[in-house]
Amino acid sequence: MMPKLLLQAAAAAAVADRRWYGSGGRRGYLPLRHPPHVAPGRFTACLLAVAAVTTTFALALTLHRPDLSAASPRGVGGGGGAGYAVVINTWKRYDLLRRSVAHYSGCGGAGAVHVVWSEPEEPTEELRGSVLNCSGGGAGVRFVINAEDSLNNRFRPIQGLTTDAVFSVDDDLIVPCSTLRFAFAVWQSAPSTMVGFVPRMHWLADPGSNAKEYRYGSWWSVWWTGTYSMVLSKASFFHRKYLDLYTNHMLPSIRDYVNENRNCEDIAMSFLVANVTGSPPIWVQGRIFEIGSSGISSLKGHDLQRSKCLNTFSAMYGHMPLVATTVKAVDSRTSWFW
């Protein structure tokens, strides 16, 4: 059955399994998610190191339409091999890496799994062996070694990449294979855009002012409004040509800013794709599971830093390229809401 796109308004943002919460007089709904079942077998040792935990999923919004960039990826959707390449960004979380590789290498559509390595020391032979052992002979797994530590490394072109579709994911996020397969089908219907599971929004701080100052809208902004303008690269599909555009054609000042602030490489990619296409991304409804407990987003002042990124990047572009939308892709076979 072909996947279907459903338009959903703000009031329909959370229609799946939910649990009621309340404190301090404030109440609302949070999605209730349970980690996917892992059948016992040869990978049990790889999975015991990390306990599966529940995760909360998100949404987002945007305004504006940009000028199209001349560096548009022509021939999108053709020339690459079937399936998609999984690109896992990792940093000193080896148990999470083993679990991620074990999972994604077993997904039917994954042609290869590439581990983006940016640590000062190359992975030991012991780690390489344990990661490859976790792959279980599914998709081929290899390490992409980078000479310097940079968040920009996750978007460097990968030599020998044979698929047009790239699924970019953090080492602490698990997307069930069936959900990933549906998202890939959505991407195939719109291969020039970003298709992902973690939506976010940007807002004008003062819509009545001539000064265009923007604020970063987290999951709660999307949940409340049903509108978003970004899908984060921590779990999203995009065309492999954006790797070249990001690394070799995007303004170097943006990559420099990412290096100096150790943040916002995902926002930079969202700006790039929106500027090329003049279109919004596509948010796919689906369960994703967070198996880690810390990261950049957990640091104090994270949203403020993200707002600074929005304003800095829009100044560098000379306009705000992000485009807002309320469209959400839903697999009608698993959703009762029409």
Can you say what the CATH homologous superfamily is? Answer: Spore Coat Polysaccharide Biosynthesis Protein SpsA, Chain A
How would you name the oligomeric state of the polypeptide chains in this document? single chain
Helix-strand string = EEEHEHEHEEEHEEEHEEHHHEEHE
Task: Using the alpha-carbon principal axes, give the shape.
Answer: globular
Number of strands: 16
Second rung of CATH, namely the architecture? Alpha-Beta Complex
Beta-strand share of residues:
15-25%
Low-confidence blocks of residues: 1-45, 47-79
CATH topology, by name, is Spore Coat Polysaccharide Biosynthesis Protein SpsA, Chain A
Number of domains: 1
Quickly name the level 1 CATH class.
Alpha Beta
GO cellular component, one term: membrane
Keywords: Disulfide bond, Transferase
Domain Glycosyl transferase: 84-331
Family: Belongs to the glycosyltransferase 64 family.
